[in-house]
Amino acid sequence: MTNNHNNTNGRVHGKVALVTGGAKGIGRASARLLAAQGAHVLISDLDVAAGEALAAEIGPAATFIRHDASSESDWRDVMVHLREHHGRLDILLNNAGILLHANIEDATLQDWHKVMRVNADSVFIGCREGIALMKQTGGSIINLSSIAALAGRDDYVAYSASKGAVAALSRSVAALCRRRKYRIRCNTLHPDGVLTDMTRGSFPQGLDPTRMTIDSDPMNRMCLPEDVAASVLFLASDESRAINGVELRIDSGQMIMSI
């Protein structure tokens, strides 16, 4: 697939986007869609091979940079790259994250710190650095949270807490940017289940995860990365210019079900 980077009719035409954890899953689908809709996308990830392959696939509308999203020094390098090559940042998708299966009785403090560092610290640093570059021209920050931030998941205690931190942080960022008149919006996306390489590993051996998607049964909860990317595009575009500080659930209606 090659995207048309000269798409002058695209919904994010001329915008510069940074997608962390952009080499796979939701990040990959979002990078493809943003580029197809006219943005230049900087894909950041620790997986150099996958990131470079995706940038090559997309074409001139994308570049790749190696990036540990939990590292302050790596964030500084990414910001230097954006300033030198684009002079601006319009869209920041804080997508990098990990999943760790453990409940409150089984999880170690090391587990907790690892998940928090990748899932929450990275968003804190990203928002801080992103605002510094965005505040002159405005922009949209989109943070990947989870339905686990809103509902109780006994089997993913550190993950749930990290995503709750992302949601609370995002509300604070949205409020500050509005109060200071930066024209920067900050919203969170809360998927319930997304069929990615990361989530495939959580399924019991022998179970085909594609049978758990809404494509096979509307009562199922899992969607595809492209479903989340569609919401990323909306929040990244000027169509959502009045939407700030919201928590958008992408859960196929799971949260409203009482049985």
TrEMBL record:
Superkingdom of this protein's organism: Bacteria
Keywords: Oxidoreductase
Annotated ranges, domain Ketoreductase: 15-198
Entry similarity comment: Belongs to the short-chain dehydrogenases/reductases (SDR) family.
Protein name (Swiss-Prot/TrEMBL): 3(Or 17)beta-hydroxysteroid dehydrogenase
